[in-house]
């Protein structure tokens, strides 16, 4: 779903989720309560910083690709979604040298609204 399609939603309340790390073997899972839908606010794939998935930088931190378009298509406007971090569409972005493990950093909000949109 394209971001500009989200303008039809009513933005009366939202619940934010802070950015989380998802390692290559993990699955990104987003869930919202009934009557709310997902709005992806961030999705980066790479080696942003040392943490849960990358414990040592080896001189390659800060390389990443913005994969928000893929997560918008898969998740934004839905009540729930699941995306494997190892999905070829994500891994294909190859933001860092291939010898180094990348991970996903993602964030979303739950906003009040229903999909498909009705007037």
TrEMBL record:
Residues 22-111 form the SUEL-type lectin domain. PROSITE patterns: SUEL_LECTIN. GO terms for molecular function: carbohydrate binding. CDD domains: Gal_Rha_Lectin (cd22823). This is SUEL-type lectin domain-containing protein. The gene is 20209521. It holds the Pfam family SUEL_Lectin.
């Amino acid at each position: 779903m394209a971001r500009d399609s989200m303008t039809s939603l009513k933005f009366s309340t939202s619940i934010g989720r802070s950015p989380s790390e998802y390692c290559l073997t993990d699955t990104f899972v987003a869930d919202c309560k009934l009557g709310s839908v997902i709005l992806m606010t961030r999705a980066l794939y790479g080696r942003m910083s040392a943490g849960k998935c990358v414990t040592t930088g080896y001189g390659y931190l800060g390389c990443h690709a913005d994969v928000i378009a893929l997560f918008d298509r898969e998740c934004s406007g839905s009540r729930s979604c699941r995306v494997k971090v190892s999905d070829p569409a994500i891994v294909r972005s190859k933001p860092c040298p291939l010898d180094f493990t990348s991970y996903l950093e993602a964030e979303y909000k739950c906003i009040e609204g229903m999909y498909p949109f009705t007037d």
